[in-house]
């Protein structure tokens, strides 16, 4: 099987356009009490995608715990809630002192309804308001949903 290729992107927050997402959902900051819901969301969102490698719920719980126990930027990590359920989220952390989008994920029943964009735009606006200048992320080449989402908020591939 071909190795997946991760492409590094940067978003220059100084040229961030206006937010485009409709905010029908409640978009709010995440906190540690969201960990169980985030793990389930992570598993549900990634299953069947190019980035899914057979992870279990236990591994998703570990990934969320690693994020929370590492250097999470909780003030800039957002979730979208529909009907009381967390259905989309972006998890931001610092990597080499720069904001880094570690995960973005939307529940399968809510994909392509603008929620991924809503949480990402909330995070980028929040980072810009806190005087951060750029954001880094990696996308697996061929992850069309993620490539499209981040292209529309100005992500540029870097070397
Ligand atoms: C990537 C992901 C978070 C996008 O979430 P979403 O809520 O469906 O995204 P949105 O509805 O806000 O769509 C954002 C843009 O991407 C486009 N898009 C969404 N899914 C797409 C797909 N499968 N193929 C092509 N474009 C897609 C939308 O049309 C929209 O573009 P537009 O503004 O030009 O109309 C979601 O597909 C997901 O959870 N994927 C699995 C996890 C993952 O791969 N995360 C990214 C790792 S870097």
Query: Which CATH architecture would you pick?
Result: 3-Layer(aba) Sandwich
Structural class: alpha+beta
How many angstroms separate the termini?
25 Å
Q: Identify the strand order in the major beta sheet.
A: 2-3-4-5-6-1-7
Low-confidence stretches: none
Counted by DSSP, the helix tally is 4
* Strand composition percent: 25-35%
Q: Report the CATH C-level class.
A: Alpha Beta
Please count the beta strands (DSSP E, at least 2 residues each): 7
H/E element sequence? EEHHEEEHEHE
What's the CATH topology name? Aminopeptidase
**Count of distinct structural domains:** 1
Give the biggest sheet.
Answer: 7 strands, mixed
Radius of gyration, CA atoms, in whole angstroms:
15 Å
What is the CATH H-level superfamily? Gcn5-related N-acetyltransferase (GNAT)
Bound molecules: coenzyme A
Mean pLDDT: 94
Q: Roughly what percent helix?
A: 25-40%
Structural account:
The protein has helices at residues 35-46, 57-69, 115-129, 144-151; strands at residues 6-12, 26-29, 78-82, 85-95, 98-106, 134-140, 156-157. By secondary structure, it is of the alpha+beta class. It has a single domain (6-157), classed as Gcn5-related N-acetyltransferase (GNAT) (Aminopeptidase). A seven-stranded mixed sheet has the order 2-3-4-5-6-1-7. A hairpin with a 2-residue loop joins strand 4 (85-95) and strand 5 (98-106). Helix 1 packs across helix 2 (57-69). The structure holds coenzyme A.
């Amino acid at each position: 099987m071909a190795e997946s290729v991760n492409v590094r992107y940067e978003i220059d927050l100084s040229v961030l356009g206006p937010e485009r997402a409709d905010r029908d959902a409640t978009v709010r900051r995440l906190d540690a009490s969201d960990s169980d819901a985030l793990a389930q969301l992570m598993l549900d969102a990634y299953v069947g995608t190019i980035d899914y490698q057979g992870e279990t719920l236990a591994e998703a719980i570990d990934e969320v715990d690693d994020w929370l126990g590492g250097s999470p930027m909780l003030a800039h990590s957002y979730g979208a809630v529909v009907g009381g359920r967390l259905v989309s989220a972006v998890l931001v952390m610092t990597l080499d002192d720069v904001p880094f989008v570690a995960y973005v994920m939307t529940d399968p029943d809510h994909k392509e309804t603008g929620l991924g964009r809503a949480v990402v735009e909330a995070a980028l606006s929040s980072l810009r308001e806190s005087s951060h200048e750029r954001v880094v992320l990696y996308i697996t080449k061929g992850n069309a949903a993620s490539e499209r989402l981040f292209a529309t908020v100005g992500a540029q591939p870097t070397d």
